[in-house]
Amino acid sequence: MSLAAGARLGQYEILAPIGTGGMGEVYRARDTKLERSVAIKVLPAAVAQDPERLARFEREAKVLASLNHPNIAQIYGVEERALVMELVPGEPLQGPLPVETALNYAKQIADALEAAHEKGIVHRDLKPANIMITPEGVVKVLDFGLAAIPQTSADGAGDPRHSPTLTIAATQAGMIMGTAAYMSPEQAAGRPVDKRADIWSFGVVLFEMLTGERLFDGETISHTLAAVLTKEPDLQQVPVKVRRLLQSCLQKDPKRRLRDIGDVGLLLAESEPATTAPLALNRASQSRLGMIGWVAAGVFALVAAALSFLHFRETPPQETALRLSVPLPDKFGVSYLALSPDGRTVAITGEGKLWLRALDSFELRPLSNTDFARHPFWSPDGRSLGFSSNGKLRIVSITGGPATALCDAGTGGGATWNREGVILFGADKGPIERVNAAGGACTPVTRIEPGMVHRLPTFLPDGRHFLYNVRSDDPGKAGLYLAALDQPAGRRLLPDRTNAIFVPRRKGAGHDHLLFQRENTLMALPFDVETLQLAGDPFSIAPQLARTSTFDQVAASAAGDGTLIYLAGSSFTDFQAIWLDRSGKELGKVGPLEDLRGLTLSPDQKSVALTYSESGSRPGVWLRELARDVESRFALPPFSGPAVWSPDSSRIAFSGPNALDVKNASGGPEQLLLQSGNPMAPSDWSRDGKYLLYTEIDPKTHGDIWYLPLDPSGELGAPVAFLKTEFNESMGQFSPDGRWVAYVSNESGSPEVYVRPFPSGGGPVRISSSGATNPHWRADGKELYYLSFLSRPGLMAVSVQSRPGGLLQAGVPKALFEVQTRFIIPEANQFIYSPSTDGQRFLMKILPDATLPTLNVITNWDELRPGS
User: Fold this and answer.
1) What is the pLDDT of residue 290?
2) Could you give all domains of the chain from N- to C-terminal order, each with its CATH number?
């Protein structure tokens, strides 16, 4: 939960935000009773909304509070799902430092660790950013042990979503918790850890204090982890008198590492050059250190010999692929992802905006001015991101600032950016288009045939040729194609309905590759970029690839350094229709777990029309009788949803190819209502049966709301534009008395819910204020519902009243419950919930927690190729 200045948590008054940490958002606050400043850390939803975990967390907080050590930031307690802590003034630890200063700080850090270890608490994420130095020179260790209280597997310790630090779950070897550059080798390998992991991290921090450089660093997280696992520390830069200490702390085998941080304190207290008298350690420590020294010398000799052999053979060391899983915040559903060109940062879409996450950090940072972003793509220099949003193709700097609109792009169809500043993109319908990143005209590049759509382009390295996806009514013409900016007639490379990711060769040998999706498997295919021909057989990289929100788009991204990131596991396109009460409590399930696009209850509440994706196993529209719990197919593609019931529940209007059709709910042939040159989608049927509301997607004006007069005798009137502007308007819903239409418009910059009088279309009344879709009226017209999407998705309710003089009075929106679903494209008119007539229940499509995919990383993925 986010807190505003002036908000209260018990006796604490929020003053200002401080930042975002591993355990949530941190605020400066004032203890009004004790008249002191404190830090308030808001707990993540996984803790705050689970009574059992919250109770356990409170017990852990008590243990941590009992430390009461001058070098540990004190925990005062838990207050309303938030952690209250000592507010520490000062600056984070930074090197290089004078030797005596560094040793002074190191002694204080060791004292803090010793106090914690004596109580069985392990930090696991010791690093300079978690160590504050006060103006008086006092060390304060922060975020101490919040993920490290000993736990059993039964209470969730193995769930990476419950960790406040960077948690990477290795697919075969358990979990990695911490920050890559400071992890112990056993952490990096995903093995169980104990207090000796803190001793390793202490050594790494001490090295950085003395030198100002990271001991283990790399171009990417994979290189850093590989260095931790394989590289022997080079201690030539540090003073001689601390080398023995660092060698003792930095043994890769924890059995040979210094076991007690108290011994580190003794070493620091009596640090002398190696030629002086022996240090006053206990006998066990002397024995361990002696053995460690001999073993270290032996290991060093072996490593030196191996390196010499490799050097003289001029053969680089063999790299191996490493599979990792990077967790996301609790119930965070990702729709799209794009890895930066240098492989260091991933851009993802979730909760209605773009987010950035460095792969060697646990921080997930929202990018401003990216509301309702889809299809992110990087500039070649990694400084900007492109995306589609609110019908436009846009670009924004990764440091923030306003987003620049370039072209009309509808709901978006992917894009790619070359080094000459040319951007290629796909829109809802039609060819691949191009625009300059600096602005200018948007012009077609490819030529299409009837029944075709070109989407998801990817530039090849020459910046001239590109790959793209073709969807076609003719299966013989669909697939992956290759074209050029000056040669718009494409050539088909693969029949698979997929886009492709081009990945250059890394080692000057072998082939470049195309990554693509075949069924639910991520495949790699050798490709000769010189001849533009396929150069071998495809091979599997990762099974169980999740599906993205867009048909045929690979849920993966790759960089030229060998880093690959992808979504795996159950598809986040699989939803369950579930009955919920007004508090969000589940009352029962309806239908199967499937790629559900939208649903609509019949007015008599006896049946529900369920629209499934045409790429799933149950394409088209199905009708389910709720009492008997049986389902029958109503319409197959190309006829599809959304399905709109007549007021007597006897007929259903739905979308055809650039057409509106109607059909008896009991079956029979469909009847054409309206044909157009643009896509159309119905949204509501007036209660008197006289009007059908629909959205027409005009390439020039975007979504416009029209209505079609329906004569009971069967005669159709001419369509009438209800709302036709330069903005996107969609999801029109008649009020029960037919006097008003609730709808969604992006005239404010993001989709919001408005109400206008019908049929005059007079001045609007704005209902929502934080991004909204899916308006629905209660059957008596006294309440209006909508989905809020710019923060946590939630169902909202607003009381409404008609006033004399044709006025509408709306109350203050009230949150009913949060809902785990996926971002909705308003123009498609796919409603994801329907209220019961009394407004006490809601049938809603839900993304079950179990189906949330994992964000996975493979380093050196090309080592997986056959024969490598």
Assistant:
1) 38
2) 1-87 (3.30.200.20), 94-313 (1.10.510.10), 326-571+857-864 (2.120.10.30), 575-672+731-851 (2.120.10)
